[in-house]
Specification:
Blueprint lengths: L3 H37 L6 H25 L3 E4 L5 E4 L3 H11 L22 H18 L6 H15 L7 H8 L12 H4 L2 H5 L4 H13 L5 H18 L4 H8 L9 H4 L13 H9 L4 H11 L3 H15 L2 E2 H8 L4 H7 L4
Antiparallel strand pairs: 1-2, 2-3
């Protein structure tokens, strides 16, 4: 279970940082008022009023700083058709996961289907994405102090046990309820499905790769598991920061050789939960997509572990195209309040 004392310390660290900023703003504004008084020849403002004005300025600065920290993971753009597109929240993972959940064990091999319908739900892809994002929020709000690996372990165990019926693999389910938090050398695609926040919140691509490795090694410490997470994070970061599809593919091909098309693999592609057997397929579904929705339809149409491939590709498509507002709202409607808050940047 999550270590509440460490979460409390993280919250305290954030409070201390905000208090320090407010104190600095108070001192600075008070000094500026005194300097203005001296050089202008008297502002007519009493000492008590100077103190009040300095205090108001400090409080406003702290509120603005707090608001900016809560909202910085959310990016909104208007596309050429005038639509609001959401980027940077991990909603691309959620929408892909929810849309694909209905067809994971009932593959349909077509792009013609309702994106959301009865039988859709969020699964482990969404829960673990929220766990990783929550861990990074703790780490960043705490001034990057402490062990990010431990925070990710705590958050994965906490949210995994909060939502025990989300469809985890057998070994991961046993890891969740065990007192032992050691990794188990997995190379399953769970490392890639949960990694998106590592790219969305990183300051540069090397940090995205570093965080991806940490998030993978909590459980998926096999080299193939780590590669899946690292490749996905690099692709997302490149897409988010203006990379072309050619730029993104170059990042992907540092890890995987992609020599097939969606149409070629659709008839025969089957269920494969490994990174080598599903991450390249998710990448190709993104590379051939015309927009976010088309990417998700590509993933579901090839079959296999399609909620996870849609979650992986959906994160890259979110970073590159953005997620239309209507899909964002529909996907959020499937989530309980705590997970919704994390996706909306309020963790």
């Amino acid at each position: 279970m999550r270590n509440s004392s460490k979460r409390k310390k993280s919250s305290n660290n954030e409070a201390h940082l905000i208090a320090s900023s407010a104190a600095a703003a108070f001192v600075l504004s008070f000094l500026l008022l005194l300097i203005a008084d001296h050089f202008i020849g008297g502002t007519g403002i009493s000492l008590a009023m100077k103190l009040i004005l300095a205090g108001v300025f400090a409080v406003l600065l702290a509120v603005i700083d707090k608001f900016d920290k809560n909202e910085r993971s959310e990016r909104f753009e208007i596309d050429e058709k005038g639509r609001v597109m959401i980027k940077g929240t991990c909603i691309g993972v959620v929408a892909g996961d929810v849309a694909g959940s209905k067809y994971e064990f009932n593959n349909i091999k077509t792009k013609d289907f309702p994106l959301f319908s009865d039988g859709c739900r969020f699964t482990d892809d969404t829960v673990m994405t929220c766990a990783v994002k929550s861990a990074l929020a703790r780490y960043l709000s705490g001034g990057r102090e402490g062990s990010l690996h431990e925070m990710m372990t705590e958050e994965m165990k906490y949210y995994g046990n909060e939502y025990p019926d989300a469809g985890y693999g057998g070994r991961f389910s046993r890891w969740l309820i065990s007192d032992d938090s050691e990794p188990y050398n997995s190379y399953g695609n769970g490392s890639a499905m949960r990694v998106s926040a590592c790219a969305f919140l990183a300051s540069d691509i090397e940090e995205a790769r570093e965080w991806a490795v940490i998030s993978s090694e909590v459980t998926h410490n096999h080299p193939d598991g780590i590669n899946g997470a690292e490749a996905t994070a690099a692709a997302i970061f490149t897409a988010l920061n203006g990379g072309t599809k050619e730029d993104i593919k170059r990042e992907m091909e540092k890890y995987y050789h992609i020599d097939f098309t969606v149409d070629e693999i659709r008839p025969t592609y089957g269920f494969n939960e490994t990174c080598p057997g599903s991450v390249p397929q998710a990448f190709e579904c993104f590379l051939e997509a015309e927009d976010y929705e088309d990417c998700i339809r590509n993933c579901i149409s090839i079959g296999g572990d399609c909620d996870t491939t849609a979650a992986i590709a959906g994160a890259i498509a979110e970073a590159y195209f953005g997620v239309p507002e209507d899909i964002n709202e529909q996907a959020l409607s499937y989530l309980p309040h705590d997970l919704r808050d994390i996706i909306q940047g309020k963790c």
